[in-house]
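ok so dumb question maybe but i'm new to this and my supervisor (M.) told me to 'just get the structure for ATPase' and walked off. so i did the thing. is this what she meant?? sequence i used:
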Amino acid sequence: MTMDAGTAITSGRTALGIEFGSTRIKAVLIGPDHAPLAVGSHDWENQLVDRLWTYSLDAVWAGVQQAVSALAEDVQRRHGVELAEVGALGVSAMMHGYLALDAEGELLTPFRTWRNTNTGRAAERLSAEFGCNIPHRWSVAHVYQAILDREEHVGRIDHLTTLAGYVHWKLTGEKVLGVGDASGMFPIDPATGGYDATMLARFGQLAAEAGAELDLAGLLPAVAVAGQPAGTLTDDGARLLDPTGRLRPGALLCPPEGDAGTGMVATNSVAPRTGNVSAGTSIFAMVVLEQALGSVHRELDLVTTPAGDPVAMVHCNNGASELDAWAGLFGQFARALGVEADSSRVFSALFTAALDGAGDGGGMLAYNYLSGEPITELEEGRPLFLRSPDSPLDLGSFMRTHLYSSLATLRIGMDVLQKAEGVRLDRMFAHGGLFKTEGVAQRFLAAAIDTPVSVGDVAAEGGAWGIAVLAAFSAGRAPEQTLADYLDGTVFTDASLQTADPDPADVAGFDAFMERYVAGLPVERAAVAHVAVGDRPTDPTPTPATTEEQPA
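this is what came out, is it supposed to look like this??
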């Protein structure tokens, strides 16, 4: 380090990153050399309320206060000083979704997360009208669906934002969003760097036709790019983070970003021909483009890096949650035998066993769909495991099947990007809980996309570290310095990477698994149609077949 850690903390030469992930709220404090100085976290879970996935705002604030308190305790334990101020601060959160507030700043509906797939009619209509793919989870799809459903609250909307934008607003008073997260609210015009004016006008017409008068441009947050200042921590904001009053206001905040953008920063994947895969509750790939895509594809979202460069995104709603459930079951079995094993040991044993499994999963098949999956046109999900009568049921093949399943929907989208569009990748980085067991999921991902996959020594802190780096960039950026130059020349100069090249046998095995996976999708659709959830009646008519992700 360039200075003693304790001195850096007490003098405010630090940056604090806070990320609201799907299963964990995490706070990371970094020093002048960008190395983590302390970490704090709080576990939380989404709730299914009235058939919509949500988190309460009470849980947002209780959780971030727990994470910041744990961070302060870690600072005291490691460095013997009190955390009383930070030089810069950044907020990141799960992307997109729907937070609609009235003129008094009160939430009009429960927060509707990225995981909801009830916006199918809106997404289809907007995609056709705009000439670009509008995914189910984008904020514009949520608000248009609310209009189509004639929801009473629509006429009282004063402010639309994402979770990161909401928290940032409460900390600073500024209604602003980083361009990467903003690009998942409404399409961005690459020529202006702001929301596409033509599409905004067309949305207004569509809303009026459906009986709603909305000036969407006036409801959306302002757009900012990486490196710009985006407000300062107010007295009220500091109290929201630390009710004890120890944390002082005044820290500079960078534009708030989504977890996709902070994942790109955390893996140094903001330059063309680079990409990253983030795997936790969901799994998604971000690939920075050299040029525009040739066609519109429903499997690909067009978003941006935090600096505003174009990105093709493959987003899958379902990632490692089903793996987490199976690991929990095996942990219960171990305890029933009188063996105490913590979750990390269970995951390590199960993942390592997968290395000895059959290359194609041994005829087994699994679908990790806890929720709907737009890429495979499923509005709901039913976790499913099946095998043929002659499939051997051994632990290695069973676990390889479930690991393959966590990557399978991603593979479908990456095939469109790599094969149909011919997009080339020089490197792909991976981060998130799925890759904590060394050399397993990384190896299988390399096989799935037939591309070398690297993991780094900072990826364990993930997006919370990434948003801390963006905060440091805003506070210390040199004139005309780009984000890519800052990451290459300042942050990642001594980074250690481990790279797995695709193994031909693994590639062939994954290809064979994918043939079986796509062919078996009608079984998953039948499970959705015939297996009820809660009090939902089953639909006796299956959805028509089409041919066409260790948790964080």
